[in-house]
Every structure is written in C-alpha cells, then in structure tokens.
Design goal:
Elements (H helix, E strand, L loop, with lengths): L6 H14 L4 E6 L4 H8 L5 E5 L10 H11 L4 E3 L5 H9 L4 E4 L5 H8 L19 H5 L3 H7 L1 E6 L2 H5 L1 H5 L6 E4 L1 H7 L11 H17 L2 E5 L3 H9 L4 E6 H17 L15
Parallel strand pairs: 1-2, 1-8, 2-3, 3-4, 4-5, 5-6, 6-7, 7-8
Length: 276
C-alpha cells in the first residue's frame, strides 16, 4: 500500500504541515486503557491524541491494540513514553504511533538520545522489525519513509532544560518541544504555581514557546483547560493539549447532575477533583 494511504503517515504529514505553517494544533490527552474510548477519541476532529504511558493507566501491553483501533478511527497516536529509553521509543513506533513524546529531556545529549531510536541506520539506531497489525497499513514501509514520518517531541520540565533550551531546539530531528508547566514550575522552585498566579512561571513558558517559534519547530504546551489553550495559541503556541479523557468524563457527568438538580445547593461538593 502506498504510504500516502497509511493513517500513521497521514497523521504525521498533517501535523508537520500545520507546524511548518505556524498553525495551531489542538489535542486530547488519553490516560484510559480502554479500546472503546481510544477508538472514540481518535475519531473526533482533534488534530492529535496523546496516549500517556508515563502517568496514564495504559501500558505497553495495551498499546498494540490501542494504536490499531486509533489508526482505524483515523488518527495515529503520539505516545508519551515513560522515559528516554530507546527500547520504549522503538516499541511505540513499531506499534504504529505517529510519534513519541519523551519526558524529562534536560540537555542536548538527551535530545539526541530521543531522536536516534526514531531513525533507522545509518541515520539512527532504530531496529527493523515490522509488527503484524501495523504491517498491513504502513508498518513495513522502507526505513527512510518511516524515518520521515516518525515525529519526535521532547518535554521541557526541568531547570536544566531551560538552561539548555537553545541547544535542545537546535537538535536535528526534533520536531517540537512540549512544556509540562506543572513539572517545570515545581522543578524551578515555584511549587504548584501556574502562569495565572506567577509572572515567573508565565515568562518561563513564554521563553520556551518563543525559542521553538524562532527555531521553526512545534511549540507545545500541556493545558489545564481550553481557556489556557486559547490564551497560549494567541501567545505563539502551535500545539496545545486542551482536555483529558478522564477529566472530560467527570466534568460532563457532574454538569449533567447539576443541571438535573436545577443547580441546588451543595453542588460544589460534586466538582470532580482536578489532577493538576
């Protein structure tokens, strides 16, 4: 099958085209290891879906089938791997992910280590081994074509990463940087403060977004709500994750209950706990 027909290639091409043009992309965060939910959210008109294997319920055992149903629904996932480990990165790509998101990237050397397993030799260190279920769409493409489609995003969420920001942005093969604002604030000594109550956290985020825009790569940000996404798109972000499967389920369920009760007192107790 020609690569342009594969969902993985199409997802990658669509995202890269948007980022090259400086256009905003909007994403959903997936933490539930449920195939029905995975299929449902991959069929929605979001630009990307991230499957979280670091802090989500899903594990690598769930990924082959999750990725398969998501590709069938029209969107290949970006997979947040638990750590900057080449075997994890290769495994995610073998399952048919459009790309990987690598947490806690603190230096140019760590950024290079994230890119290398995304490419086959001689460009990188990825091992060849097409996986059944992915082979039938675009999983057994020539190595160079798979190299071209695998998106590599690294997360900036430490003080060291901010110091090494320019070098990380300039690392060949990095498609974008994704800011974890909660970890970044924690690691830089601002505790649980957000950009809404700390000018320092606000300027830290802005600094990363600006560096990404200058470097011509995706400027990504994990947002606590849609309003935050809208605000940071206006400030230059090109990749904003605006909702999470568990949060949407809890919030919509509570909103329905409040509406049915006619907004009676005591509805404050109903509010679902915020994970961040």
């Amino acid at each position: 099958m020609h690569h342009s027909h594969g969902t993985t290639a199409r997802t990658s091409e669509r995202l890269r085209a948007a980022w090259r043009g400086g256009d905003a992309t909007y994403g959903l965060w997936s933490t539930l290891a449920d195939m029905t939910v995975a299929e449902l959210i991959a069929g929605l008109p979001y630009d990307y879906v991230i499957v979280d294997l670091q802090h989500g319920v899903s594990t690598f055992a769930d990924l082959p089938v999750m990725a398969q149903v998501m590709r069938g629904a029209g969107t290949a996932p970006i997979v947040r791997v638990p750590s900057n480990d080449p075997t994890q990165i290769m495994r995610a790509l073998d399952c048919g992910a459009a790309g990987v998101m690598v947490p806690l990237t603190g230096s140019a050397a760590e950024a290079r280590a994230a890119v290398e397993p995304c490419r086959f030799p001689l460009a990188g260190t990825r091992s060849w081994g097409p996986m059944w279920g992915y082979v039938r769409s675009d999983g057994a493409l020539p190595p160079q074509e798979q190299d071209a489609q695998a998106i590599c995003l690294v997360m900036i969420e430490t003080a060291g990463a901010v110091e090494a920001l320019d070098e990380i942005v300039a690392t060949p093969g990095i498609d974008g940087i994704y800011v974890g604002p909660n970890d970044l604030a924690l690691a830089c000594g601002y505790g649980r403060q957000t950009y809404r109550d700390s000018p320092e956290v606000e300027s830290l985020i802005q600094r990363v977004i600006d560096a990404c825009r200058s470097g011509g790569i995706a400027a990504g940000l994990h947002c606590s709500d849609p309003a935050m996404g809208r605000e940071w798109v206006a400030r230059g972000a090109t990749m904003v994750t605006i909702a999470q499967d568990t949060g949407l389920l809890a919030e919509a369920a509570v909103a329905a209950l409040e509406e049915a009760r006619g907004g009676v007192e005591g509805s404050d107790e109903l509010a679902p706990p915020k994970p961040y």
